[in-house]
């Protein structure tokens, strides 16, 4: 799967998940919007992590849930690509 999907495609899917399942209908989200500005709380963040794990077959370790990986959708999707590439290399 690592070679089949791009960070941009992951970002689009994460934005759509946030729009459909986490945020109010009038909230605008794009890959660079800070999740904290959107009002994403710890429960919503866990929903997003679970979506990633189910959708992309990844396991996000607790030590990965740091601000630089979780600041916005772009950072999170870039981290997912790094994990996918690591899994693909294994």
Automatic annotation (TrEMBL):
Organism superkingdom: Bacteria
Gene3D superfamilies hit by this protein: ACP-like
Short name of any one Pfam family annotated for the protein: PP-binding
InterPro entries per UniProt: ACP-like_sf, PP-bd_ACP
Ranges for domain Carrier: 4-84
Name this polypeptide is given: Acyl carrier protein
Organism from which the protein derives: Methyloglobulus morosus KoM1
